[in-house]
Amino acid sequence: MKKLYIFLFVLNFSIFQNLNAIDKNINLEKKLELQWKNYDKARELLLQKAALGDVPLEEKLISREDWEKLIALSPSEDFTDDDLLYLKTLQEKRIYKAKIKAKYESIIDLTKVRHKQLEKQFCEQFPKGGMLHVHPSGTLDRNIANILLQKNNPVLEFDAIFNDIDNSSGNKMLYPSERLWLSNLPKGAKYSDLTKNSQNKFQSFLFLPAGKQPFPRFNSVFSFLNFATPDNSSYQQSLLAFVNKAAKEGVIYIEFTGTAKPQFYDTLSYLENQTGVTLRLNNAFRRTKDIKNLNDDWNKFINSSSNKYLVGIDFLDNEENNPSLEKGQFIYSSALFGSLNGTNKLHRTMHSGEIGLIEDPRDSMIMGVERMGHGVNLSKDIIALEYASRNKMPIEINISSNLRLTSIDNVKQHPFIKYLRLGLPVSLSTDDEGMFDIDINNECTIALKKTDISYAELKQMSYNSITTSFAAKEDKDLLKIKLDHLFYQFEKSSFVQNLDLLKISSY
Ligand SMILES: CNc1ncnc2c1ncn2[C@@H]1O[C@H](COP(=O)(O)O)[C@@H](O)[C@H]1O
Fold first, then answer.
1. SUPFAM superfamilies under this entry (predicted)?
2. 395-412 residue pLDDT tens
3. Distance 428 CA to ligand 1 centre (A)
4. How close is the Cα of 135 to the center of ligand 1, in Å?
């Protein structure tokens, strides 16, 4: 009898709990729906402004205040702490389920790879698919820099660089000791005049100094690259070395973010012919410029002729003090407007949530991006994260870059695996691999060593890098066939067979 009472009590309690959960769920869903409606309203306003066309900028400008008013829920409808906690629990459940499912679906057992400490060797063989976040000049590595500095033997003149840094409004910087060292080099000296030690020290300015660095220190590395690549043929040589290396690492597609110009299209065509890797370009707009100059850049860009290599736009440079909305609204509203009207076919990605405002990832999604670069801060806005999850927002992830330039201190803190398990099509890239002394094998190895990623998830990221690329459909279809083939070969390879990594022996 006593047992029956206990049973009834437990039953009652669990029914009550379930009802409570259903109630909470309905409530949360209603609020989320209202929130998405407000996101839509903000996007509508952007499109209305874009439709105004050529009116003075002030008439088109949406202020942060008006934007936030449109997005905010009324106090009675707003998310309570309890709602947010509940949403977090739901997301955690989804993450856990996705993890178990992926592990179950994995045909290769990575625990064996981890146990034998063969992560690096595994990643060297593993097909990578594409890299969707690569700055061309940031790919120069130490080996090629050394060769090119010897060959070009530049005059070591720094006045222009110091001027540029001094006039960058804090967007570039050197440490005082670094500046002193450079200033003390003999005036008019050539690279070959330096001692071997000084040559090495000078070379180090073409790379990011060790450890975490502030974004302005990173930015000034770009100022030194011209010493190694003063002309187009040197630049091509450095890019060829990079693409060849990527091809060896199992990369079949690279989407660069850089400046669209005829000379660069020629370079891309040359590199494609030499390497067999498919290459495309997103034109970069610089968020550090003022809004008038950005508007001019956009008008010039959109009126220039199209090219098969040009597939989209990107928005880069220091996000700190240059939020997506304040700086990107003209470009991205015009681009979205044009895309909806069929007047332009360019896709839209944006560096967003690398550093800077927590609102940036949310705002870039409202502004119509089809992919997000970095996106690290998206995890700090659980509502925007839920939106990204439901809309399957692709994210270009650069783990090593983020460890050097953002507040993330170790891979465990990096949200990419959480994104992946919430259904965001995450892919891995290297950002500026030369400057960070890394490559895509290194990024794969980090993921394998420092997270509990499964084979199915790693493979998913490779496929994501093709399916979420901005390449034309025909190109994507071909790349996908290529990737299928590479995985078929990999899974049958002697590396996989000899280590007995396959879970299903008959495969
Ligand atoms: C670390 N992640 C990043 N975040 C934001 N902006 C970045 C970047 N990496 C590079 N850039 C930006 O891209 C420019 C180089 O373009 P090119 O290759 O010369 O076309 C750099 O000046 C830098 O501001």
1. Metallo-dependent hydrolases (SSF51556)
2. 999 999 999 999 999 999
3. 17
4. 6
Q: Is the pLDDT of residue 506 over 60?
A: no
What CATH architecture does domain 104-138+239-498 belong to? Answer: Alpha-Beta Barrel (3.20)
Residues of the chain with CATH 3.20.20.140: 104-138+239-498
Ligand 1 center from residue 255 Cα (angstroms): 14
Regarding the beta carbon of 405 and ligand 1, being less than 6 Å apart is answered yes
Whose Cα sits closest to atom 6 in ligand 1? 317
Q: Is 172 in the pocket of ligand 1 (CB under 6 A)?
A: no
Confidence of residue 100 (pLDDT cuts 50, 70, 90): very high
Predicted TM-score (pTM) of this structure: 0.94
Q: How many whole angstroms separate alpha carbon 257 and alpha carbon 265?
A: 13
Q: Note the Cα 255 to chain centre separation in Å.
A: 11
Render pLDDT for 143-195 as a digit per residue (tens, 0 to 9).
999 999 999 999 999 999 999 999 999 999 999 999 999 999 998 999 999 99
Is 141 close to ligand 1, i.e. is its CB under 6 Å away?
no
CB 258 near ligand 1, within 6 Å: yes
DSSP collapsed to 3 states, 154-218: CECCCHHHHHHHHCCCCCCCCCHHHHHHHHCCCCCCEHHHCCHHHHHHHHHHHCCCCCCCCHHHH
Q: Ligand 1 within 6 A of 314 CB?
A: no
Instruction: Take atom 23 of ligand 1 and give the residue whose Cα is closest.
Output: 317
For 253, the 3-state DSSP assignment is strand
Cross-sheet strand order for the sheet of 310-316? 129-134, 251-258, 278-286, 310-316, 347-352, 371-374, 395-397, 426-428
Least confident of 3-12, 356-365, 489-498: 3-12
pLDDT of residue 505: 46
The predicted model gives 273-291 an average pLDDT of 98
DSSP summary character for residue 54: S
**Mean pLDDT over residues 74-93, rounded?**
96
